[in-house]
Here is the input.
Amino acid sequence: MPVVSARKLVKRYDGFLAVDHIDFDIEEGEIFGFLGPNGAGKSTTMRMVQGVSPVTSGKLEVLGMDITRRSKEIKALIGVAPQEDNLDPDFPVVRNLTTYARYFRIPAEEAEKRARRLLEFMQLEEKADAEIEELSGGMKRRLIVARALINEPRLLILDEPTTGLDPQARHLIWERVRELKRNGATIILSTHYMDEAEQLCDRLVIMENGRFLVEGRPKDLIQQVVGPCVLEIIDPEEGRDIESYLVSVGAQVERSAYRIYAYSKQCQTIQSGFRERFPDTYSTVRSATLEDVFLRLTGRRLRE
Here is the structure.
């Protein structure tokens, strides 16, 4: 049985359709990603899974229970690390965990043990008695993840867990997420970092306007949507018929302000011909990434 199962799931805010009849299953032990530009509906979907935003219509089951009927029971079995920093500044680090444990009716002695163990897990044991305002941004994010684990959840929801962190802090959280998965955790991940999704997710969806554009394993989506490689034309000269040439040799072409992107299974061959025809225009071939998939599907225009 899937840990999360949705059928024809809809969320409306007044006249606005935020989530538009989506279907998905999340299996036990996998990391499932929600990606999309701002306003795509991914956070709204995750809030419905958490039971904090009512379902407008459709069916949503979490841990085998109907979210509309048993949300209180479901909330006791999941852990959530939200985007925002909502740590309690009135309590030191360890008390942020033990106080939160009271919501789950965890006995004080057991809460203390779990809190100390989680601080060690997130490399925060030396900060146990520190005030929240003394922590760096990376430390706060790690503490929020630790807090989400205090009830030993069957489902962990990580909403933008590494936003704004330096590379070292990001990679530490990645390591801990992988370790949780190895221990059998089921994790829902929302992120704007495509490399993060590509590194961590077993499967993912890319959303736009409340619907799924694609669903699958990252490496499969790269092959299906983009192909194995990308030929980038850097600072192409105006007036030169570069795009027409690339299309004529079978490439799919996209353009940004200062670059042309050619998607093909034969990038090296196309580049060789390109250099003969346009010897003064710089080009490079690289492996395709999930970011290419994301931008190809959702566009390169800035979303506010």
